[in-house]
Amino acid sequence: MGLPIIFALVAVLAAFGAISALKNKNFLGLFFAAGTFAVFGWFAVMTLINSGYPAVH
């Protein structure tokens, strides 16, 4: 259950990175930060929906 938590933390950091890149008008950084947020955030949310929190066997 630790892996989705780590991926959620990565998604949160990517969101902060996207906001920072947008403020600095760094569009390549914004592209990669937004993509990272989308991929890792989607994985974390879908894993929590599928497995539940805490994991139920």
List the helices and strands and how they pair.
Elements: H1 2-23, H2 27-51
| Average pLDDT taken over every residue | 90
Structural class per helix/strand content? mainly alpha
The count of strands amounts to 0
Biggest beta-sheet profile? none
- Uncertain residue ranges: none
Distance from first to last alpha carbon = 12 Å
- Count of runs of 4 or more consecutive helical residues: 2
- Mind telling me the C-alpha Rg? 13 Å
Q: How many structural domains does the protein architecture include?
A: 1
Order of H and E elements = HH
Question: Which percent range fits the helix content?
Answer: over 70%
**% residues in beta strands:** under 5%
Q: State the shape.
A: elongated
